[in-house]
What we know:
The chain is of the alpha+beta class. Helix content is 25%, strand content 40%.
Amino acid sequence: MEALIEGVDLVERNILKALTDAGLEVLEPEGEKFDPNTMEAMMRVPTEEDGQDEMVHQVFLKGYMFKDQLVRPARVSVYKDDD
């Protein structure tokens, strides 16, 4: 079973490398400012510190861009100041 899992992991890494070399960009924007052009806000989270308003709290689903074209937006939770 371990050999099968290792083989699948190897195939996944090879495919991801080939796609990255061809122009795929993985979007994992945790801690970045929310960008509605590349992200989809799934929920709001109250801010915990100053300066967190409109920052990405957590990434639920990675996003992808291929040669500057959005394939899938990153699905995220966003800090929102309730003031």
